[in-house]
Amino acid sequence: MTGEDVYVSAKLAMVELLLSGCTTSSDHLYIYPNDVTLDDTIRAAREVGLRFHPTRGIMTLGKSQGGLPPDDCVETTEVALEDARRLIRQYHDPSCHAMLRLGVAPCSPFSVTEDCMAAAAKLVAEFPGVRLHTHLAENQEDIDYSLKVYGCRPGEYIKRVGWNREVSWYAHCVMLSAEERVQFRDAGMAVAHCPSSNLRLASGICPVRRLLDDGVTVALGVDGTASNDTGNLLQEMRLALLLQRASGNVEGLRVREALQIATQGGAKALGWEGEVGVIAPGYAADFVGWKTSDSVAFAGGLHQPLSSLLLCAPGNVTTSVINGEVIVRDGCLLTVDVKALVRDHNERSARICAALGGPEA
């Protein structure tokens, strides 16, 4: 896999996000083979027109040391953080309504060392607006690993490594305890809920209703192709809504709450609160729209257009404006030749699958 492969695949993922209503996204790239760098995804975002908050992912704890990733996928803490520092200095823009900000993201407690987590926390303290991200309490195996290796639950572990602070946001958090939910609220930390990924990996259902009731900030994520083969934000909103009602509580999550998670929740998790996530004076000119007239999906639902948006699966956006620039007009993406991108992506995918061999080659 090359840097150009990462650039093309990231660009395609961003196109799917844009067409499903996304205007701001983060990304957690933590494997850097050959000539791959985070610059590849940044280049893609700039060409597509997406407001972007990439994170410099890190894996330092290989399988031979008791971690999850293969040894040839890990790097040293020193090399990884030096590259993170380079990226922050080169790209991070703390100004209001910026189009690009950076984060530092050791992959998970079972793929980086404790020293790496602590060093990442010290690094971000040097740069205003740079945030911390990792996977946490995704499933029971995560809890068991933390107890066995670190002698404590995830909540205590993040305190130990200096992550118990407002600049931190965490993917999944399916298995947080009641005490840890209060800890998250008090520290101002956020959860990125990834419903499709949790279901595909049989991780469980994140207790979003309890998190919200306890005052925890919840955002929405589509995760990546390792655990979710779609990057459709609208679909993820719908699934998040339905999952919280699966226990039998029709008030498990309301339509407006699902929308708030995907907009205001995401903005707050990424540190963009007061800049994006709301259509109001002083906020960035980021908004999307769906055509409701002559639409099969919206037919019969125009008296409740917001509910119809989440429940009736209306498809791609008709209009998308990001930072005042029209990105999608009349359903057509203006910044990318989508057909050419798809062809390029398919060719690269076929080449990589053939190199790996097996029945899918």
Structural notes for this entry:
The chain has 361 residues and is an alpha/beta fold. 40% of the residues lie in helices and 14% in strands. It has helices spanning 3-19, 39-48, 77-91, 114-124, 140-150, 154-160, 178-187, 195-200, 208-213, 233-243, 255-269, 305-311, 338-356, and strands at 24-29, 51-58, 103-106, 131-136, 168-172, 190-193, 217-220, 287-289, 319-322, 325-329, 332-333. It has a seven-stranded parallel β-sheet. Helix 10 crosses helix 11.
What is the structure about, briefly put?
With 361 residues, this protein is an alpha/beta fold. It is built from 13 helices and eleven strands.
Could you give the order of the helices and strands?
A: HEHEHEHEHHEHEHHEHHEHEEEH
Total strand segments: 11
**Helix count from the secondary structure assignment:** 13
Main sheet record: 7 strands, parallel
Structural class assignment:
alpha/beta
Low-confidence stretches: none
Principal-axes shape call: globular
Distance separating the two termini = 15 Å
Radius of gyration, in angstroms, nearest whole number:
20 Å
Features of the shown structure:
single chain, 361 residues, alpha/beta, four-stranded antiparallel beta sheet, 11 strands
Helices and strands, with pairings:
Layout: H1 3-19, E1 24-29, H2 39-48, E2 51-58, H3 77-91, E3 103-106, H4 114-124, E4 131-136, H5 140-150, H6 154-160, E5 168-172, H7 178-187, E6 190-193, H8 195-200, H9 208-213, E7 217-220, H10 233-243, H11 255-269, E8 287-289, H12 305-311, E9 319-322, E10 325-329, E11 332-333, H13 338-356
Parallel strand pairs: 1-2, 2-3, 3-4, 4-5, 5-6, 6-7
Antiparallel strand pairs: 8-9, 9-10, 10-11
